[in-house]
Amino acid sequence: MENCLKCGNPLEAGADKGRPKAYCSTACRRSAEMEIRRVDQQLAALENNAQAIRLGRWVDLGGGSDAEMIAAEIKRLEARLKMLLSAAVDAT
């Protein structure tokens, strides 16, 4: 038995025809779509900050660790986005 990609609840067994279900409800599917958009927006903001650091337009208040923290957060969010998108593609 498969589980919902968003909440982890078991999915009902569907018909043999058509795409397999990936989400237990419309609410979970919409929530996953919203999370994809939110993560994408967060990545864009972090990438803008990273670009500002590279171009010398960033005021570093953290003793030089801002660039590393931003890079680590970008890496974390990219991994989450990749997981969400691959799950969405696998479900189609």
What is shown here, in short?
With 92 residues, the protein is mainly alpha-helical.
Task: List its traits.
2 helices, single chain
Write a structural description:
The chain is mainly alpha-helical. The chain has one domain. The chain is 60% helix and 0% strand. The chain has two helices and no strands. Helix 1 packs antiparallel against helix 2.
What is the element string, with H for helices and E for strands?
Answer: HH
Helix-strand makeup class: mainly alpha
Largest sheet: none
Distance from first to last alpha carbon: 18 Å
Mean pLDDT: 82
User: What global shape is seen?
Assistant: rod-shaped
Helical coverage, percent range:
55-70%
Beta-strand level of the residues, as a percent range? under 5%
Count of extended strands: 0
**Tally of contiguous helical segments:** 2
Low-confidence stretches: none
Q: Mind telling me the C-alpha Rg? A: 18 Å
> How many individual domains?
1
